[in-house]
Amino acid sequence: MLDSLEDVEEYHVEHVHETYPLYVLNYPRKLRGMFSWVHDTWQNLSLVGRTGRFWYNNMDHSIHMGFRAAERILESPSAPAPPFYTEVSRFQSFRIVD
């Protein structure tokens, strides 16, 4: 369990500016394949937010996903992604408000 920020050895944040999902034919099937590969390959990688999940969602939804990912890291530092990904279907049910 992490007790403080000093316990974090390394992290990486990638900022992608002016990026929105571009939907193409069969994109859900293509995304499922890509996410399946990512989930099976990296147990410590959590894809969150608009660009990470390839969702056009509200910013508060992205922030919520980020908080949930952080909670999973604190609970299971060596493999936080599997428990986080069990929540993805719930994130997909969020209502988009324009």
Task: Briefly characterize the structure.
With 98 residues, the chain is mainly α. It has helices at residues 27-41, 49-53, 59-75, 81-85, 88-92. It has five helices and no strands.
Write the layout of secondary structure elements.
Elements: H1 27-41, H2 49-53, H3 59-75, H4 81-85, H5 88-92
Polypeptide structure, described:
By secondary structure, this protein is mainly α. The protein has five helices and no strands. The model has no long low-confidence stretch (mean pLDDT 82).
Rg from alpha-carbon coordinates = 14 Å
Oligomer: single chain
Largest beta-sheet characterization: none
Helix content: 40-55%
The end-to-end span amounts to 39 Å
- The count of strands amounts to 0
Contiguous uncertain segments of 5+ residues: none
Q: What's the mean pLDDT score? A: 82
State the order of secondary-structure elements, H for helix, E for strand. HHHHH
Structural class estimated from helices and strands: mainly alpha
Brief descriptors of the model:
mainly alpha; single chain; 98 residues; 5 helices; 48% helix
